[in-house]
Design brief:
alpha/beta; about 270 residues; 9 strands; single chain
Length: about 270
């Protein structure tokens, strides 16, 4: 059963979890897994996608207004929960698009079951270990200052400026909650599932991996290695885009994603 919240947002009961789900637009289903900061759902890219798709945005446990029970401990746990969500929602032939942490989750889901997924797009995802045990594949963002992290995440650091004092308390509470949950799921092992890399070969749907050329948190070499583990995956780089290339270069991003979706639909 779904309890209506406000507008196009609802709370679904999945097992013992209250899962916040937002819907926009109409058309074939596109399930969008947001980044850890909740920035993507507020971007113009979602409005563009909603012109052609029903964009379905579930908030991960502990993010947004979704509850977070103690038994949800890893991204692997969340992936199985999201498969339950897809089943309960009756989603079929869906496009799955994940951004950053949401990209990691999308990859986890696609290695397990793609019966409801027709195509996959991953945007600067975390999730795998590429180098050796002592190699730092992903910058330690919890060791750095806010200013240093912002400079790494954006091609132009000013693009990451946020006016926190102007935000309502409810929004600030969600931001704090998102950060707490992000740390809980990504602290150890740091930003990856040691088993995911060897599971990526199981992804059997057309896949696009998009990377910001100026991503200083995880480099394009990491992104290329990620794509190389997925059979037939296409790898595209967005110039002058950082960790969130869709925020800094939305037009170029939509050209790349739109072209992939059109090609994948023609081939279906």
């Amino acid at each position: 059963m779904a309890e209506k919240s406000s507008g196009n947002v609802e709370i679904l009961k999945i097992q013992d979890i209250d899962l916040e789900v937002e819907r926009r637009g109409a058309g074939p289903p596109l399930v969008l897994l947001d980044d850890e900061e909740g920035l993507t759902r507020e971007s113009p890219v979602v409005d563009q996608l909603a012109k052609s798709f029903e964009v379905i945005i579930p908030s991960m446990p502990g993010f947004g207004r979704s509850s977070r029970p103690n038994w949800i401990e890893t991204m692997d746990d969340i992936a199985y929960l999201m498969l339950d969500f897809l089943d309960q929602a009756g989603v079929e032939d869906a496009t799955l698009v994940g951004f950053s942490l949401g990209g990691w989750l999308a990859a986890e889901i696609a290695t397990k079951n793609v019966s409801r997924i027709a195509r996959l797009a991953l945007v600067d995802p975390y999730g795998i270990k590429v180098g050796g045990p002592w190699d730092r594949d992903i910058q330690d963002i919890w060791f750095l200052t806010k200013e240093e992290v912002q400079a790494l995440k954006y091609a132009d650091a000013k693009n990451g400026d946020i006016d926190y004092p102007a935000m309502p308390d409810e929004k600030l509470e969600i931001i704090a909650r998102n950060r707490e949950s992000f740390a809980r799921f990504c602290w150890q092992p740091y930003m990856h599932n040691p088993k995911l890399k060897r599971r990526l070969h199981r992804i059997s749907v057309p896949t696009l991996v998009i990377w910001g050329a100026a991503d200083g948190v995880i480099t394009t070499d990491y992104g290329k290695a990620y794509a190389d583990e997925i059979p037939g995956a296409r790898f595209e780089v967005i110039e002058n885009g950082g960790h969130f290339p869709h925020l800094e270069q939305p037009e170029h991003f939509m050209e790349v994603l739109g072209g992939f979706l059109a090609d994948a639909q023609k081939a279906a």
